[in-house]
Design a protein that fits this description.
Layout (H helix, E strand, L loop, with lengths): L4 E3 L4 H10 L3 E4 L5 H6 L7 E4 L9 E4 L2 E5 L4 H6 L1 H6 L1 H8 L4 H6 L2 H7 L6 H7 L3 E4 L3 E3 H4 E3 L2 E2 L7 E7 L3 E8 L6 E10 L2 E7 L7 E2 L1 H9 L24 H17 L4 E4 L1
Parallel strand pairs: 1-3, 2-3, 11-15
Antiparallel strand pairs: 4-5, 5-10, 6-7, 6-10, 8-9, 11-12, 12-13, 13-14
Length: 271
Amino acid sequence: MSPMTYHRPTTLGQAKELSQTLENAVFMSGGHTLLPAMKQDLATPDHVIDLSHIGELDAIRVDSNDLIIGAMSTHVQVATSTIVQELIPALAGLAGSIGDRQVRQRGTIGGSVANNDPAADYPSAVLGLGGTIITNLREIRADDFFVGLFETALEPFEIIIAIRFPTPLSAGYAKFKSPAARYPQAGVFIARFEGSVRVAVTGAGQSGVYRLVQLEKNLLESFVDDAAANLEISTENLIEDMYATKDYRANLVKTMTHHALTHMGTISIFK
């Protein structure tokens, strides 16, 4: 790891000031993507600005019928929040399924979403629920936020403050976990609203999280458990690695879609 200087602001104002005055600086939340990259010299910042001590960023609250989760809320905070459990139980279950206890204690929803890691769980919930990313500069719809592999619409030093989730009629999440790192080789989040259905896939796409638009249309016409039975998943833009071929991942997406549909209101995990 290359030498760097660590900074620990306690307010958003301090974090913004540091980002504007320091050269080659990066923000860090939980550190689960940044720190491994730094250890391998894939990222070599001169300054690391740790956002985890900004208390105003970890609140979980309700605004009208929307759920607002602060960006620095850890996975365990989201998983155990009675507010999240009541409004969107599938989201609470998703958070509780991430990694292991150590990861859930340190990892944050804002950090996960900001990186658009193709194997992260949260992006599927944000896109599947049609969430809105609230930053210190603006609000960004989920459909406009996830741009590509490890790429989002965030501008340099734009800070995610919170994520707004509309409350669905019901939602479900299913994933097949990697045997080693426990990240999803394929995960599907389905959310049903009055007059619309959204389906998001994580862990399988070369460009990160994406929507299954045709299935959304089918489910809007007839929301049934076997809607994925005749679903054809294109392998063109799927990931292929040591764990799964493109064809295998396509089948995983189809299978996880079925399980998400049959477990609306909760989650299913396979390994």
